[in-house]
Amino acid sequence: MFARPLRERVRAGEITSSVRIWLTPRVKVGGRYRLLDGHVEVTRLQEIDLSDVDDAMARAGGFDSLDALMDTARHGRGERVFLVDFVFVPD
């Protein structure tokens, strides 16, 4: 799921990656997940170190800064960091 302000940008193809912090992966490569009038299809799932996450990744994911990304990504008990690449596929 994407924060409401990011959804249209994902749909438009402006955002094609996301950093997620989970206990375990919540998506799989090739998986299709409902978003607006289509689906997000995961093209790559890579576990990375938290220290690998930088401002460029935050901006690519639609955030203004690394701090803004972390405020959103750190919302649960997760400790594992994943970089998820995807494409939006309209219905």
Could you report the average pLDDT, rounded to the nearest whole number? 94
Radius of gyration: 12 Å
Task: Spell out the helices and strands N to C.
Answer: HEEEHHE
Low-confidence stretches: none
| Head-to-tail CA distance between termini | 18 Å
Proportion of strand residues: 35-45%
Structural class: alpha+beta
Shape: globular
| Secondary structure tally: strands | 4
Helix content: 10-25%
Task: Give the strand line-up of the largest sheet.
Answer: 1-4-3-2
Oligomer: single chain
Number of helices: 3
Major pleated sheet: 4 strands, antiparallel
Descriptive overview:
- The chain is α+β, with helices and mostly antiparallel strands and 91 residues long.
- The protein contains three helices and four strands; from the N terminus they run H-E-E-E-H-H-E.
- It has helices spanning 4-11, 55-60, 66-73, and strands at residues 17-22, 32-35, 38-48, 80-90.
- The model has no long low-confidence stretch (mean pLDDT 94).
Properties at a glance:
single chain, 91 residues, alpha+beta, four-stranded antiparallel β-sheet, 24% helix, globular
